[in-house]
Each structure stands twice: as C-alpha cells, then as structure tokens.
C-alpha cells in the first residue's frame, strides 16, 4: 500500500519525506485555506520535496474552467495530479486532462457507481471518502470493498486512494481490503507506529540492558 499524506503543511511533509515514508501528497481547498499561503507556491514547494503524485484541486465547477485550471496546475511540476470533483463536468475534465497525459484524481466519491464512472473516464486515482460516510452512520469501508471488486472484475487500472481517513484502524482496514493508496493526515500516519506493548517492552529491555553493565560499541 502506498502512503500519501493529506496536508498542505510543508513542514510536516518535509519531516515525513525524510523518513522515506511518503509516496505522494493530497491537498484540497480547505487544506490550502488552513496553510494560508498562495496555492501555486505551496504545490511547487511540495513537488520539490516529494517525487510521487501531488494532488492539487481545481476551484472551477464547470468542465472548461476545470480543464483550464488543470492545465495551469499541471505546468507547476511533472508530478502534479489534478484533482477534480465527481460530477459530470469533473468526469469530462478528467477525460480531457488524462488524454493530455496529466494524472487526475477524481475526488468526493461516495458511491461505487461514481467510482465506476471515474474509472471509465480514465481517472488515475479515485478518492472514496471513508470518514465522511462514517459520519453519516454508513460504513465507509464497504465502499472501498465494493470499488475493489468492481475494478478487479473489469481490470480497471484506476488506483483506489482511500481518503477522509480518521484513524489507524481505517488504514488497517483499507489495506486489508486492498486499497492501492491511503491518504492520511500526518497525526494518523504518526499514530501507526504506536503500541503500548512496544513502549512497555522497550522500557524493560532498556532497564535490563543497563543492569548488564555492558556496552555494545
Ligand atoms: C482527500 O484527498 C481529501 O483531501 C481528504 O482525505 C478529506 O478528508 P476529510 O474528510 O477529513 O476532510
């Protein structure tokens, strides 16, 4: 499973990239608002740090506007992935931009039929939003499972990018189902390493090692 980080915070991205943990980055208008800097500058900086796909979302809601913005964003760096919403206009923009060799991430996916349409429109990535479905009392993981089956049935190459991930358990379940990518907030990515028995075991080993009076070096 590939790990993308879902943030526009360049400090967080640099720290995670140094660990070699990052396969890509996703941003959205809300994350750009939070970063409070010009989008173009943010995306260019992220693309300098991360080699993998960096999603930059269009603001237009009509196909022509999305295509124009997408072409503009794609010029920032070769790893920019243009993010478009899952609407008819978004699908049209997806078809045009992928036809021009630009990677496209179709976002705001909440149903298997939407994901089927995105794959048929040639999407590079489909982003089903797990957490936002969970918020409605619907199991978001069922959507990942359904899309996996459909894409495998027809051998679609569109990658399933599990999004709106809120917990370490979401990451584990998406990996078990076979999502190709998980885009994860930095705090959740860091939480994956945590286990109380690891901390407890390490404490004991450190204490016992001290008692041996030995030194390895
Ligand atoms: C994905 O690309 C989105 O940016 C993101 O995962 C949305 O997550 P949220 O529902 O926590 O805002």
Written overview of the protein:
- With 217 residues, this protein is α/β, with parallel strands linked by helices.
- The chain has one domain (2-212): Aldolase class I (TIM Barrel, Alpha-Beta Barrel), CATH 3.20.20.70.
- The protein has 11 helices and 8 strands.
- It has helices spanning 10-18, 29-35, 39-49, 63-74, 88-99, 112-120, 130-135, 140-154, 168-177, 186-191, 196-212; strands spanning 2-6, 24-26, 54-57, 80-85, 103-109, 125-128, 159-162, 181-184.
- It has an 8-stranded parallel β-barrel, surrounded by 6 helices.
- α1 (10-18) runs parallel beside α3 (39-49), α6 packs parallel to α8 (140-154) and α8 (140-154) runs parallel beside α9 (168-177).
- The two termini are 37 Å apart.
- The model has no long low-confidence stretch (mean pLDDT 97).
- Erythose-4-phosphate binds at residues 6, 26, 28, 107, 127, 129, 131-132, 163-164, 183.
- It holds the Pfam family TAL_FSA.
Short description:
53% of the residues lie in helices and 17% in strands.
* CATH homologous superfamily title: Aldolase class I
What overall geometry do the principal axes of the alpha carbons give?
globular
**Roughly what percent helix?**
40-55%
Second-tier CATH architecture: Alpha-Beta Barrel
- Number of distinct helices: 11
Strand content: 15-25%
* Annotated CATH topology: TIM Barrel
Which ligands occur here? erythose-4-phosphate
Rounded average pLDDT: 97
Uncertain runs are: none
What class, by secondary structure content? alpha/beta
SSE string, helices as H and strands as E: EHEHHEHEHEHEHHEHEHH
Largest sheet: 8 strands, parallel, barrel
Class in CATH?
Alpha Beta
Write down the Rg. Answer: 20 Å
Overall domain count = 1
